[in-house]
Amino acid sequence: MSKIELDIQNIGGISDASFSFGPGTTLVVGRNASNKTSLLRSVQFALGADEVPVRSGADLASVRLSLDDTEIQRQARRNGAGYEISDDSWLSDPDDTDLVNQFACLLGTNPLRSAVEKGEDVESLLKEPIDIEALESERSEKMSRKRDLRRDVERLDDIDERLADHTDELAETRERIETLDSELDDLYAEQNDTETDDERLEELREQRTDLRTERENYRDQIDELEETIDRLTDRRSTVESDLETAREHADSHDIERLKQERESVREELTEITERIDILQSVLSANRELLDSEYAGSLGYEPGLVDDELSCWACGNPAPRSDFEDTVDELQEVLKQDKQRKREREPELSDIENDIEAATDARRRVQKLESDLTDIDQQLQQRRDSLEQKRTELERIEAELDDIADEIETHESERAESRSDLATEIEETRLELQTLRRDAERLEETIEDLESKRDERERKRAEIEQLSADIRSLTDRIENQEQELRDVFNETMDDLIDALDFERIERVRLTGNFDIVIAREVDGVVREDSIEHLAESERAVIGLVLGLAGFLVYDVDEVSPLLLVDSLGAFDASRTERLIEYFTDTTRFLLAAVHPEVAARMDYETVSMT
Length: 609
Hints:
It is built from 14 helices and 15 strands. It is α/β, with parallel strands linked by helices.
């Protein structure tokens, strides 16, 4: 039969001890301050917890745990103000470690038990293992992507109409080209018979053709520049809108205030840490004075009224009870400082995240401002170029007017001797040239529109897939939350029935993961919030909720051990029923109890003194 072998050095109040536990339930028996919790904290450290109470005055704490064919040894060595902890632990997956710390190590410092006892929110703690936040984040990203795609598709709504118009225009242009080609052949044939040679007129016509070609080129360039300016103007509007949004987001974060808050929290944590070190040193000195076997040599004077001790700090005698009261007071202050430190450390991380978010927002504003400047520069360049092209076009128009006048004069001089055949041929050639360029431009435009249409269809398909994904994620979130509540409530019902509380009829989680208590008041069962329960009743609910989580998340498949401590809120009878209830749910159950409770049960025991 497999057993757990445990060797502990310098953890809590344990200097050097070895223990052996068989399968099933083992009761860790002892009075208060008998190192029951130190033993359980040692096991928790071996499983993978990052915190361990190193024995005062020791530089190295270690624990060795062996079970079946597996053995691990974990150490914590003092390193300046902190500890260097070895990586070797029973659990290698951080998620498994968090799960076990949350629901299998139900000591007095357990975060879930503490939250219930203080009336704090438990939703995030209960839902943490199913990682609903990750699902909600994924859904939010997909919804944002879907909105972006819809805006893109809306901008392409008229693509089919534009494509049809350009396709019809291209067909008409090609038909006109075929007609003009035929007409031009006929004109050339007629010219061979009727046209006489006139070099000056031919030169003028060539100049006119070249100028007309040049004019068409400038017109095309002007059209392209105007389209580019329109696109840049639209782009500028989009960037301006994004910039306004980014500025609003950046303005919503006050980095200087956040940095001041961070500095304030850091200073407070430093003060608390220094005070903790001082308190621990003073507390250690007082404990050594009270517990030393050689108290007489240190100032203990037996036989006097109240047994006096000489103060280690000032040397004056004082009653032993005063020193004991001082130790209690120091322990309470130390506990409060440690609690305050645990509360403030997450706040420092949150402030750091806010500063990073604010810095990213400012970078986003700078990037958009740079983009806006680039667009303005491009717009100015295109507008300057457009003005130049229009000036050149006016020059060409003037030259064409001059040439037209000269041709008219030249032709009028020989009007009686020639026909307008050459002019018709030239105009036909020019029209053909223009139409062919138009056809090429239309083909390019159609190709671009078809590409955009394909892009629109791809985005529509992606929108449909995103919609399906969003629905699926929404269903998963809602179903997992409901399943979590249902299983928790069923498990809580079983535990409450097993513990047979007189005043508590039921404990359940609402849709908002609030804890609601149904209890009997004056013979009537009424629902109440946990804030109205006594501290001892909240302690009971906190432990029961943690044990319910152990069952809900099948923690026994991850950890071979379930640790239970701080059962003072339960009477002996309920403690017995609680332990009996969980005996068959885990391979090894270690429960810290007082001797009078252990005497009622027939389980393996480990005595702590």
